[in-house]
Amino acid sequence: MYHRPPVIGEYLLRKLQSYDIEHIFGIPGDYVLRFYNLIEQSSIQHIGMTREDAAGYAADAYARTRGMGAACVTYCVGGLSMVNAVAGAYAEKSPVVVISGAPGIKERGKDALLHHKVRDFHTQQRIYDEITVATALLDEPFTAFNEIDRVLDAVYRYKRPGYIELPRDMVDARGTLYQRPSTGGHLSDPDILDAAVEDACNFINQSKKPIILAGVELHRFGYQNKLIHLVEEKRIPVVATLLGKSVIPESHPLYLGIYEGAMGQEDVREFVEDSDCVIILGAFMTDVNLGIYTANLDRTRSVYATTEKINVRYRAYDEVTFDDFLDGLNSPKLRRRRKPNLDWALKGREPFEVKPNAPLKVNRLFQHLNEFISDELTVIADVGDSLFGAVELDIHQHTNFISPAYYTSMGFAVPASVGAQFSMPDTRCLVIVGDGAFQMTGTELSTTVRYGFNPIVVVLNNHGYGTERHLLEGTFNDIGCWNYSRMPTLFGAGRGFHVRTEGEFDEAIKTALAETQHFTLIEVELDKLDTSPALARLAERMSGTV
Amino acid sequence: MYHRPPVIGEYLLRKLQSYDIEHIFGIPGDYVLRFYNLIEQSSIQHIGMTREDAAGYAADAYARTRGMGAACVTYCVGGLSMVNAVAGAYAEKSPVVVISGAPGIKERGKDALLHHKVRDFHTQQRIYDEITVATALLDEPFTAFNEIDRVLDAVYRYKRPGYIELPRDMVDARGTLYQRPSTGGHLSDPDILDAAVEDACNFINQSKKPIILAGVELHRFGYQNKLIHLVEEKRIPVVATLLGKSVIPESHPLYLGIYEGAMGQEDVREFVEDSDCVIILGAFMTDVNLGIYTANLDRTRSVYATTEKINVRYRAYDEVTFDDFLDGLNSPKLRRRRKPNLDWALKGREPFEVKPNAPLKVNRLFQHLNEFISDELTVIADVGDSLFGAVELDIHQHTNFISPAYYTSMGFAVPASVGAQFSMPDTRCLVIVGDGAFQMTGTELSTTVRYGFNPIVVVLNNHGYGTERHLLEGTFNDIGCWNYSRMPTLFGAGRGFHVRTEGEFDEAIKTALAETQHFTLIEVELDKLDTSPALARLAERMSGTV
């Protein structure tokens, strides 16, 4: 394969490329400069962000849409600034590789107080042990390649982050090629697989009104086609979780909408909860995902399959992979049903009529925005009403909706748009973000200017932490007021609008869609207490537990 | 003391107040709202920042200047966003108390997938175990008060951060008053103390040219007066470390300057390295602090005392407190010396003459800035040349210089100014920050607007990561260009200047000093490769190891 073994930094870059990584997001620092130098010589492009957490969010969005992403930072001051972003990727199963520079192994003698060190030289790795599936310190050349393989394999297999610490005196050290024995992957036990498939098919075949609840793992592991096959061949209707939104094109005739318990649409909720057989595939049973546990799904009438477990009602089947189980459901053992009657769900939306002078309201804003959703747009929703409102948007293609719907970390969306844009150059990002979240990471728009991107950023300005106002109000929910629409002045590029009425919004969004040469920021002035219907329902449920 | 035991949240607030804490920095979130509600009812003021890491930096600066600081955030998405700031406080011994909301104990059953959770419910606490001296999860009322006491005692005693996790269903739970046995503090063994003091005094008394190297612990533990007494009574001249800058008023006649090995002033270096007795007090022997190990101090001619160890040459003395040891040095056992001849150091600065049309250069900029330093200003330096240049400023009073000189995390300064301002309302902050660091946290100026502060922020714009350019150049050191002086447009307040010549800077800084009603940002246009003399020397030393 190689004439002679490459140096460790080079091997790492080649392995990343073999996972389709063409961009690495990050910020340099002295402990990682030597590796940055190698990146610059390679065909991977380094993307400079303004902050490390933003680099983490960008790598996360890249990973979600491309299968793997990478961020590269310096020791501690860099790596520890990215902990929250990587924790979010862990929680939501996004395969992000974190590469951190570090003091050289030879510098570490006598517990030297080198700059950026916290307690001891292993502090950062121990922290990453908590938020990744695998970590490695490449502290000597003999095992380095093997360690790189181990971490990347784990990231690929579990779709969770991994951590590689590369001391600066190891970057140019020549490694030892080592033919790692193939782990052979995770295989099903054929007998248990048969039993599981038979049990599930019998249960589904006997049911009167089965429905599939599709979750985000179908997307992360690339099983969307298996899902579509199952839906179309067996004629079983499908709903998605919040985190799984757009795992199936939302225009599909058998797709009914997002199921999120009492938080979501009433007719969807009823259909799912009346079902005698809910086939839950690749979904995390999380609180926000399922409407703060208002979801009413019991195990006596469900099949629940993920990459971590396969359950048919109360029976668990170990040693069965999700992949094989999905193939089993797609086999002739599961009968093709009659075409379900879904007329109630196909009523279609009323066309939206702009009332030019009407003040903007969250609910109507999203209906309005829905008119402009197209195949070319990727919607990236931040948390709070940016997320709850965006649930209502009809996403035409799969993978065109990205949000931190489980971990719900504020400030994800703007930096994530940078990663999505590099991953999918033909798309245009529509970012929806609240004012509080925008104050956290909105200046990352600077990076979109730098690389010539053109996101449309809708800032929902309700003057504070809106979701919290509905749970418990106090002055702590107030924030400073920015002139968001003046951001272009700061960056010397882009277009800003500050809109208060439906007519103004209509004009702004149309201009934004027409002007593709730069970012457009639309600050939408909202009433402090205005909410989407979903948030209103959520707040009612949650305020008891706050 | 109390008629009946208070609720846990209330007890925590009262204890914080007993440590002189009047402000808590943070961002609310649903898991911490109930505690925020209690803060709002108390006499402690909540200070809303735009981001959690900024809250951490503000609490750090507050802690450095007041003796203890506190930050309050929500679970994981908040707490994990503050890891780097708290790690910096740990590395530089700043007593910051982190209070994190968390899911209620009753909600945690069956490993529920509540939002914001990463791997399990203890992930965040385990991460904080790595970057604090004590952590506590207040999971039941019987031990809660005791646990709060334990963490705060440790923070106070070690001047390092502590972590308290407060599940939302414990905030209003009534605790159990418990008379905690006094730990009695850390006491010296009288015989070992005598031996240590005698050994040190003999060594110093016999020396010809002793000098004190004063470090930051003298400030953190409030021993500045012991230092001044020692210097004045015994007539021993003194230098400070970079991190200890301003631990003694820099106008003191026995103060010679900052010692930082080959990175610093040559005459100071020679004086220290020619000394036959260097008395190192409360200094961290770190790399940047000591000029990347170019410092030439050997143990045969040093007394090295900190809160962690007491060494006289090669002899270590256990069970001796720093406090008692300092008192020992201040006793008659150490002789009063003749007045040292320090004429060489008292040459004074040449008055700075502005060359109105001369383009700005880092070196002259700091000489120029020095003309404006007064007792009313607190200088807060970010990293890189903001720090190395600021070393040259003459700080008149102690505690009026704040910087992350060991951990050197970019983006510290602007948020830290908010904390310093609340801690010392009579001061005005002069913030010096590079363009790269400003892009990380500069929007925290929004918070200064919100609370009516008036920092002067000098942005050294050398178009990228300047320190790194001198270590290893590449396109990765470039960053996007902002119109920094337009920040006032974004916030609707403040004043901005963009200056290129000495004359323009002179006018800008004078205007800034005169206009006390708002922040002033002065963007200083510098050449990409211009450096302070200290950075040039540092880069020369470091470029070999990058």
What portion of residues of chain A belong to β-strands? 15-25%
In total, how many beta strands of chain A? Answer: 19
- Most extensive interface, chain pair and sizes: A-B, 84 and 84 residues
* Structure classification of chain A: alpha/beta
Specify the CATH architecture of the largest domain in chain A. Answer: 3-Layer(aba) Sandwich
CATH class of the largest domain in chain A: Alpha Beta
Choose one word for the global shape of chain A.
globular
Order of strands side by side in the largest beta sheet of chain A?
9-8-7-10-11-12-13
CATH superfamily of the largest domain in chain A: Thiamin diphosphate (ThDP)-binding fold, Pyr/PP domains
Name the quaternary structure: homodimer
Unreliable sequence segments of chain A: none
Task: Quote the CATH topology of the largest domain in chain A.
Answer: Rossmann fold
| Overall number of domains of chain A | 3
